[in-house]
Amino acid sequence: MRLRNFLLLCFALFLTVSFLDAKSSTKVSKEEGPPVCTASDKEYNVGDMGPAGGIIFYDKGFVSGGSSDGKCWRYLEEAPSDQEGHLWSNLTNNALVLSTETYIGSGYMNTLKIITQNKHATSAAKICHDLIVKNGDATFNDYFLPSRSELTALCNRRPSCAGTDTKKGLSYGPILWSSSEFSATDAYVAPENLQGGGHMSKKYEYVFVCIRAF
């Protein structure tokens, strides 16, 4: 009887230890997730001057961010001055595997995709990426070439880049590059109602606006 009780006790202890080991081995450690986005210290309206001295042209309404955005942001601010004409990229017949996007929030990642493309040397995106703007004591170096939808949002408050198309006497404001690719040879531009369908050859030199998100 004593031997039986002893064996039962040993078996019970064995089961307890096995259960605890299994529980500890299946415990999943928390991995560090994306940074928590916090609200801006100051709120702005579209049309206000932003921290870098440019005009705010888009307000998402809340602060958020993710891998596609590259950072937490709410507002889009254009650079204080436009950039002179430059080709979209020195790679004028190489598609980015159609990996650039068009939606608002994709311009930053589009810019990185363009400047890291194999054999890339110069582009409108790189000029924006390298742009440094000083406003008072603050320095800003987080610019990028806007996506198609970001460029449209900018043009919504810029009548000069809306353009008209009479198909007889064409009248446009300046043609502006976006960071969104249309094909291996073309990229989207503004105004969107161009006779060519809102996209132009990457080899042409058009002006462009660098923007930042914050």
What does this structure look like?
By secondary structure, this protein is an alpha+beta fold. The protein has one domain (56-213). The chain has helices spanning 2-25, 107-115, 124-130, 148-155, and strands spanning 56-64, 73-78, 83-87, 133-135, 138-140, 176-181, 186-190, 199-201, 205-208, 211-213. It has a three-stranded antiparallel sheet with strand order 1-2-10, with helices on one face. The longest helix has 24 residues, at 2-25.
Q: Percent helix among the residues?
A: 10-25%
Structural class: alpha+beta
Overall number of domains = 1
Global morphology: globular
Task: Report Rg.
Answer: 27 Å
User: What percentage of the residues does DSSP assign to strands (E)?
Assistant: 15-25%
Notable features of this structure?
single chain, 214 residues, alpha+beta, 3-stranded antiparallel beta sheet, 4 helices, 10 strands, 22% helix, globular
Short synopsis of the structure:
A hairpin with a 4-residue loop joins strand 6 (176-181) and strand 7 (186-190).
Can you lay out the helices and strands and say which pair or pack?
Blueprint: H1 2-25, E1 56-64, E2 73-78, E3 83-87, H2 107-115, H3 124-130, E4 133-135, E5 138-140, H4 148-155, E6 176-181, E7 186-190, E8 199-201, E9 205-208, E10 211-213
Antiparallel strand pairs: 1-2, 2-10, 3-9, 4-5, 6-7, 7-8
